[in-house]
Amino acid sequence: ASLGRDWAFRDVRLFPTLQPDVYYAQYTASGRSAVDGTPVERHVVLRLELEQQQLVRLVEFANPAIALAAAAR
Asked: Which residues are registered as beta bridge partners of 17?
């Protein structure tokens, strides 16, 4: 979030698992670079864990190669 601004989220999908309190989510986030204003787009996958219907753990999976390539531009 600190690298971008004006984020918009689309293509949000939620996937249940065999564990009743564990889900995966996928979405696309697009915005503008906080450094130079160029467009930024990220495809994100999250693992969500709930306890008593409260979010207790969120893990974001990212591809570091994409972030490094964007930083090199």
From this structure: none
Q: Are 15 and 27 in contact (CB under 8 A)?
A: no
- Tell me which H or E stretch contains 33: strand 22-33
Q: How far is CA 59 from CA 1, 28, 55, in A?
A: 15, 16, 11
Q: What is the pLDDT of residues 4-52, one digit of tens each?
A: 778 899 999 999 999 999 999 999 989 998 888 889 888 889 999 999 9
The DSSP 8-state label assigned to residue 62 in this structure reads -
Contact 56, 72 (CB under 8 A): no
The number of helices, as runs of H, and strands, as runs of E, in the chain is 1, 4
Q: From CA 67, how far away is CA 3, in angstroms rounded?
A: 10
H-helix or E-strand spanning residue 66: helix 64-72
* Number of residues assigned to the chain: 73
